[in-house]
Structure formats: C-alpha cells, structure tokens
Amino acid sequence: MQWCLRAAGGLLIALGTLAGAGELSREQVMAALAQSTGGGAVFDGKDLSDLDLSTLDLRRASFRGANLFGAKLVSADLRGVDLAGANLNGAWLMGTDFTGAQLRGASLLSVVILGGAVRKMPTFKDANLRGTRIIADLPGADLSGADLGQARIGVNIRNQGMGQMRTDLTGANLSGVNLEGADLNRSLLSFANLRNSNLRGANLFRAKLAGADLSGADVAGADFSEADLAGTLLRDAKGIEAAKGLEHADSIDKGVR
C-alpha cells in the first residue's frame, strides 16, 4: 500500500510501500521532517509504536492521537509539540523535553525512565497535561507551571494489577502547577515542591506528602483523608479551612503551618 504524509500547507510526501498501515521507520520520519514546511510534518493518528526516535528534533511535528507505545524518545526534543490524546504507554522518556507540549488526554502508563546511558528525567515544564492518565516513576522531575487539571495520576483501585503501581513524584518540582480536580490518591509526593500550586478539589487520599512544600497552595476542597502530612509545609496555604479529611490525615499534628 502506498502511504503519503500530509505536511503543513497540504504538501503530500510519499513514503513508499509499507508492510502494514501506519508503520513507519525512523528514516521515513526523518525524511518527512526534512521535507515538511510551515507548521511541520503531521503524524496524527499514526502507529509509531516501538519506533526509535531518540535524539530527534520533533518540534515541527504533530502527533495528535498517535500510537507511540514503547517508542524510544530518549533525549528527543518535543518542546511545544501537539501530542493530545497520544498513547505514550511504555515509551522510553529518559531526557525527553516536553516543555510547553500539548499532552491533553494523553496516556503515560509505565513509561521507562531508567536504564541506558541517559539518566536525566523527562521535563514537562509548562506542558498541558490536562486529563492525562499517568502512572509513572518521575522522582525529581520538572513539571513546574504544568496544567494537570483533572489528570488521573492516582491508583486505579478497581484494577488490582494496576493497583500495585503508584506514581512517584518524590522531590518533583510541581511549583505553580494546576492540579484542580486531579486524582492523586496514594501517589508518592514526599518532599515535592508544590508551592503556589492549585490543588482545589484534588483527591489526595493516602498520598505521601511527608516533607512536601505546599506553601501558598490553594487547597480548598482538596481531600487529605489518610494522607501522610508529617513535616508538610502548609504556610499561607489558601482555603485550608475548606479542605477535606484533615482530621483523618496521618501526622497532621506534625505538619508545619
């Protein structure tokens, strides 16, 4: 089957006869990027699973709804790229730069961030992760200024297999992040920087917040039931009188206000 990629401005780029619909090689992706004009190459809805796109500059591409399952994106530049609704489950994200990227409604389950020569965490600074599903180990990662409103980061207790997995944001930079209405149940947030974040209505049931900094954060309507608040900084937190479950939080007496 002859397959063509439509780039910005309606340019059609022939990419040859493929063994299966939606399957591309690294070389074909690179050719499309090189030949694209204007807004860049469009891979919306394409199957790029298990493809090695490591170190590529992908800023002039669009991957809306693309299947990047298991793709290697090690040290790839995805700043500002549109990945709304993309499947990034199992993707290799060591050193990947998602600064300002559009990831609304995307799925990042069991992403790979350890192993190999690159030991740098992926960056999600100022990214749109609204409504994204995330179960990942991201200790120390930079998500400052990101929009995680309505994101599903917590454990899916109905799925017992998935229920054994928790998102690890220990020591992560979440300053100024929007987490309004996000599900963070049972997540690991110890020593995370949540200064001036928006946690209105967030589900923090059994979240590990020991030593986390919530100074200036808006916690109105947030549910802290059974959360670990040992040493949690709550100075100047807004709406704390409207927060839920504080009377049932663990070590609330050891929190700092």
What's the gist of this structure?
The protein is largely without helices or strands.
Structure description:
By secondary structure, the protein is largely without helices or strands. 5% of the residues lie in helices and 8% in strands. A two-stranded antiparallel sheet has the order 1-2. Strands 3-4 form a two-stranded parallel sheet. β1 (2-6) and β2 (12-17) form a beta hairpin.
Features:
257 residues, little secondary structure, two-stranded antiparallel ribbon, two-stranded parallel sheet, 6 strands, 5% helix, 8% strand, elongated
Please tell me the overall pLDDT.
Answer: 88
Strand order of the largest sheet: 1-2
Give the N-to-C terminal Cα separation.
65 Å
Task: Give the helix/strand class.
Answer: little secondary structure
Layout of secondary structure:
Elements: E1 2-6, E2 12-17, H1 26-35, E3 41-42, E4 61-62, E5 107-109, E6 133-135, H2 160-163
Parallel strand pairs: 3-4, 5-6
Antiparallel strand pairs: 1-2
